[in-house]
User: Which sequence fits this backbone?
């Protein structure tokens, strides 16, 4: 289980009068994500989603609060946790000069996958994400959707328990998006815990067991899609989102 407790992150900016201002990208954020659960992190641009996911992944450090993975504290056991964690953002860059196979082999070695099963693992991942047809092509020659599937593949190669996926299907064609969504749902069935940030409300309603809705760095709603729709008296998550956020996102 992943437990996020009272996480806050502040940044300093300078206004037009050259005065320093402090703002909170995330302010006292708490939620849990259980085994075999997909938790959607939703909110408008600037709500604090990406900052939060980077903190949970150990890329940024929170100013306050704690994060625990199966009772391991992220601050104290970060290396151990990261061995069992995969993080992906919508604009993650990978080596264009490598082939898909070369990238996956390199990532497998990085995560200490035993050498005698690396090829077997690459084949398994290639089947799951339907990337065998371009396994030996250089990444720089792949389409956007194919490149994102390779990105997902390098996250999957070490069979992590936890996935943190930020805008994983942003800008992709319907086929690539569906392959990635099917992969996410299958990993949930395999007992994995997945944090999934998206602007596509229909995606979130379709795959997420629980929603954490953020606005201006604060949690404004938490619950299953059905619970949120019931509370907002709406029939779909898109309408519920606008009911909760409204015009209060500038």
Assistant:
């Amino acid at each position: 289980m992943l437990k996020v407790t009272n996480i806050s992150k502040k940044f300093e900016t300078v206004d037009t009068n050259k005065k320093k201002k402090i703002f909170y990208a995330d302010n006292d954020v708490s939620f849990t994500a259980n085994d075999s659960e997909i938790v959607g992190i939703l909110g408008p641009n600037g709500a604090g989603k990406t900052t939060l996911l980077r903190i949970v992944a150990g890329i940024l450090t929170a100013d306050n609060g704690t994060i625990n993975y199966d009772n391991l504290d992220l601050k104290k056991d970060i290396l151990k946790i990261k061995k069992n964690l995969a993080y992906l953002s919508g604009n993650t860059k990978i080596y264009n000069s490598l082939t898909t196979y070369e990238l996956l082999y390199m990532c497998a070695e990085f995560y200490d996958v035993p050498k005698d099963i690396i090829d077997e693992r690459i084949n398994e991942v290639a089947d799951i994400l339907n990337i065998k047809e371009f396994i030996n092509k250089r990444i720089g020659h792949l389409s956007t959707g194919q490149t994102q599937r390779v990105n997902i593949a390098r996250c999957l190669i070490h069979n992590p328990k936890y996935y943190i996926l930020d805008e994983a299907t942003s800008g992709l064609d319907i086929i690539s998006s569906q392959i990635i969504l099917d992969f996410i749902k299958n990993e949930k069935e395999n007992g994995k815990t997945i944090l999934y940030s998206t602007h596509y409300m229909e995606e979130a309603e379709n795959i997420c067991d629980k929603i954490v809705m953020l606005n201006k760095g604060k949690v404004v709603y938490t619950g299953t899609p059905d619970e949120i729709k019931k509370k907002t008296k709406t029939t779909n998550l898109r309408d519920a989102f606008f009911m909760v956020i409204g015009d209060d996102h500038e």
In short: The longest helix spans residues 174-189. The longest strand covers residues 20-33. The mean pLDDT is 91. DSSP finds nine helices and ten strands in the chain.
